[in-house]
Amino acid sequence: QRLLESDDARIEEVDLFKALVSWHRHRSKDCHDAGLDDKQLARLFGSVRYAQMTGLQLVSEVRPFAGGVVPKDLYVSALEQVAAPEVTLADEGQAYRKQTVRRQPPIGSIKVSDPQLLLVQSTSVKKVGCIGWNCTAVIDPSTSRTRFRVEHLTDNQNGIGIAIFDPERNALRGGSSGFPNPNQWGADCLVGVYGTGCFFGIITDRVLQWRAGLVVETTIDATHGGGTLQVRFS
What is the pTM of this model? Predict the structure, then answer.
């Protein structure tokens, strides 16, 4: 229960839900287990933040349980959030407000092009070399969502770049190192944002102002059929 209610749990909501369903099924099959009463089940499944799932996840994974172990009001509310994300649940009570709070993103692997210039500590990357566009950190995310937070920035002129790239495409372009060239950011990457704060690969007038405390979140979803990817920056 403590894990389900924690804001710091590093797991995608749909994965947490599927794990809870699997656990519940296992306990239900155990003839020596008295199981949980309806009130306890409602509390457990009511702690899942369904509003953080996509419409596809809600329909394919959650709908079969809606009205059963999944509280129907939370399921309907989550569908409403997908349809109208600008609508707030602030006046719906504590249980609903918790649905809008995102947990910490899962930890992916991080590798750097030059350990003399970039230092990795857990989920943090620190520039320790000279300023300029001279190094790259590649994150292999464990889920579709990755959150970046700028803790400190001294090289305001060059800023920071964030981009999505295809390793196979990069190799075909002659990139044998496995890292996109920071000086060919737009050519080596599919979509992203330059150190100037301008985006490329997407149509937007938005310009980021790189500064300490700035949070940028990227979400990568496969389109219907899995042929292409949809990338969102928020």
Answer: 0.57
